[in-house]
Amino acid sequence: MHKLLESIEKNLLKYGTAAIIMAVPLFPKFPLIRLPGTYVSIRLEDFLIALVALFWLFSFWHQRVKFFKDNLNRIILGYLTIGFLSLFSAIFLTQTVEPHIALFHTIRRVEYLMVFFIMVASIKSRKDVRFFAQVFLLTAFLVFLYGLGQKFFMFPVISTMNVEFAKGMALRLSPGARVSSTFAGHYDLGAYLVLLLSFLMAYIVATKKKMRRVPLLFFFGFLFWLLLASASRISFAAYLGSMTITLFLLKKKSWIIPVLVLSLVTSVFASELTERYANTLRVSLLKIGEIKIELPWIQKSAQISFLPEPTPTPTPAPAVVPVKGPKKIIKVMPQPTPTPTPGKRYFYYGGVGSEPPPEDRSTAIRLKVEWPRAIRAFLKNPLLGTGYSSITLATDNDYLRALGEIGLLGFLAFVMIFIGIGLKAKEIIFSKTPIEGEKAILIGIVGGTIGFLANALFIDVFEASKAAITFWLLMGLVIGISKISFSKEKNQ
């Protein structure tokens, strides 16, 4: 009877985890319960995660002592505790948040990390690792199929890029628009694909039979096409970096140059992506061209001021307004025009031949609005920040976001999680065992993680639920593999 209950518990957790792996990326972001004051909603997959978490808590109760002895688990719990301390501080001390919205976003972080614990607990053997690897790849293939349908067969887009879209509106891609597939936006899709492409490359290397590699290589090409169709500049650059690291760690150095060259050559045919890169380069060159270096021994130029170009001010004719009784004349007084001051040189903004320099909108928003806002939040309360949701939904830099929302303590705890996972992975990567099976899969996840962390410099990937939950599931797979490897060595 006891063995039967253990088997039921194991299978519920295993297949519940597989359901999360598939449902989170594939199910569109239809809102189920809307919260006032934010367009982030509670969705159906949140209930799925909560249900599987209940199964996990049942198994956790029997191993709670062992759980709390694990240093990585304690670091994660410390990170979550700091998040709640920051919430308390934001509500009662700095008063920088709406309590119900801040609580909701704090619980979201608990949910994202809960799937990490669930995945670790679900892995009992090497067979489980292979099973979950196949589920991840099957899910990615379905994401590709939906992206193909969006591009060529008018499959609907469910986006959360603004308040109206977040209501669950079914949209269609206009010609030349960036593909987002089942994700809320093309940036989220790009971050997800950076993880899965490295994962798939490792799976290809781990496949011993060469004939089985052929369909996997075609599959890799499909996912790469989808990455190009997302036209995410940051994700494409992150892909190049993660693929280089993945192949290096897999000891496939001879593959690096061909894969990178083929990727770059193929990307030329992605017009939307190349146009975005060309625009970035064009703006950068213009900015560089504006830089002037003044040597100290050369006489300084005259003071430069920027004023609207003085134009002749027409004097309007008196306007005659018909009224009852005697007619009245209403004169419209002209606006004064700034008068140039003698001794200064003037560059006129918007004049003939002096159009305003182009600007990369995404970069400008980050540098002028989002990043300074996060820094101000950090300076307001350096230790605990100003609470989750205090700096709006977009910062486009997850590290600055962490500093602003949960302060230095939360940021350091966040970094310590990755150090802890990295140390576990390092033991396997640099072990003397051959690179195959679970070790190759782990290397693929590590390579994709580096690309994901690079993405976090410019995108809020740890707040994008589909990408973030997939990421923490993969981190759980890393720890699960390390558990299997450790127990295997111990038994030898």
Task: Provide an overview of this structure.
With 492 residues, the chain is mostly helical. It has one domain. Helices cover 64% and strands 3% of the residues. It is built from 15 helices and 4 strands. The strands form 2 sheets. A two-stranded parallel sheet has the order 1-4. A two-stranded antiparallel sheet has the order 2-3. The longest helix has 32 residues. It is globular. About 10% of the residues have low confidence.
Summary keywords:
64% helix; two-stranded antiparallel ribbon; two-stranded parallel ribbon; 492 residues; mainly alpha
Architecture blueprint of SSEs:
Blueprint: H1 2-26, H2 44-62, H3 64-69, H4 71-92, H5 99-122, H6 126-152, H7 186-206, H8 210-230, H9 233-249, H10 253-267, H11 271-289, E1 304-308, E2 319-321, E3 328-330, E4 345-349, H12 361-380, H13 398-429, H14 437-455, H15 465-491
Helix pairs in contact: 1-2, 1-5, 1-6, 2-5, 4-5, 4-13, 5-15, 6-7, 6-8, 7-8, 7-9, 7-14, 7-15, 9-10, 9-14, 12-13, 13-14, 13-15, 14-15
